[in-house]
Amino acid sequence: MLIHANNLINYANNVVIDASNVLTHASNMLLRVSSCQHLFVLLKVFFFFICSKCYIYSLLFVVVFSTALPSASVEVAALGRLLFPGTLYDSRKDSFIPGVTLWDKTSLSEDLDSRPKPRTYLKFSSSDSISTKSSLLDVSASLKASFLGGLVGVGGSGRFLQDTKSSNQQSRVTMFYSETTRYEQLTMSHLHKITYPEVFEQKTATHVVVAVLYGAQAFMVFDRTLSEEEDEQQMEGKLNAMVNKIPKLSGEGNAAFKMTEDDNKMAEKITCTFHGDVRLQQNPTTYMEALQTYKQLPTLLKDPQNAVPIKVWLYPLHLLNATAARVEREISESVATNIEALIEELRKAERTFNDLSRHTLANSFSDIKERLRSFQDSFSIYKKMLLKAVRRVLPAVRGGEMEENSVTKSLEGVRIEDSDGLNSILVNPDFLGVLCFTFTSLKYEDPYLSALKEYLTTDRFKELDGEHSMYPVASIRKWFKDSDLMAKMRFNVNLLKTLLKPFEGQKVLFIISAISDASNPGSSIYMYELGQLTEKQYQYPFRVLARLEN
Questions:
Q1: Neighbours of 194 (CB within 10 A)
Q2: What is the rounded CA–CA span in Å between residue 183 and residue 86?
Q3: What is the rounded radius of gyration, in angstroms, for the C-alpha atoms of the chain?
Q4: pTM for this prediction
């Protein structure tokens, strides 16, 4: 447990350093230009969001729950990948093995059970979340984690998972059309007549595809960019109504549904992106083109020549041969949800950055534009390193290289909570005490913003008539540049490490949170006993133990 705690604390130290670097970028962004007040406020919110959400929340990533994998067949979405009966699959990396098989071509084609499976789906969605997209494509939690980590390459309709909004000023509605045609599966005779048993010894695959559901799917994604004057909720409702009209407008002889003049004006501002398993002569880019494409979809998707794997069923190789590689443990749904939430936060930050970089003031001042670009470079590096870590950890957990104990105990040891979450914990009678590693200075007052706001209310500003006027700005030392405060933070991190072992198995919860406290800058360990804050600068590892045991 102590070794795993050391790993967690070392990671926390790195997060502190990263947070310091990002906050330095944030402070450099705030120029003293009076006409940029609105942009500065947006920048301030954006950078505080990055520091307090993405960097602290990334602590959650190193914690991975694992659960035992059942021995039954595993159902997996194909996502445009070439997965056919007999294809070998490595579930540790969620990748297929091309060119290697257990059977020769003749054996695979013999006794293949094939039957029709016609079914049609038509769905609409106004959500751009990862969760909603995964649900439409029937992607499991484990496969979703692999996709988010960059382990899974997608094609055809699966590319819909990669299509995300680039701006917060964007309304989006998606139409999903799906046709399944036939179902194929291997028979028991295949499983008992292995042509190439040496494949088991190679240990490159964990499963084999034993069944495939064929068909074709298509997504049409409709976007409408909002102006600053337009109401987001109202516009989303109008866009949703326009997209839901498409099946009715495309019906032959349906004179009851015609486009009005307002509909035509609305249609001119709607763009369309197509993701599908069928190749069109020309992909639709406008609403009117999407109307014509929709009329063709039923015929195209039902054509057997356009059928591709939609869903596959995997059979564990170790049930055929005990020497074969296997998945030792699977990524639980709770961890997949944590990874998903983190990626969602990163995408929100990217959208905010895109909006800021397109702002007229950002383009008017080259210095602001340059510093925004500098921050984007740093943010991109952080994101790449984080996803690289996800790609490294997921296969290690599934392959048993990371012990189940190490990944579960880490999350149980330290949780990250906002103020609401902290309050709910404090009233929980199951915990006698709470030790909270607290970031106390994430929400600090910036002198440039304060001076800017104050200056705009002065008579000197109101009386300006083209003259240059200077206004003094107080200079303060940033907490994250104070070597004493950083040393104090490292001390508190190490103190938290020493407390994890003595309190193992007791009713004491360890959490990380952010609570502004100007009198106690940097960080501190808060101690709560029976829901009450009893100490704001806790420093004695064994004193609290004695208190709680009495």
A1: 15
A2: 14
A3: 28
A4: 0.65
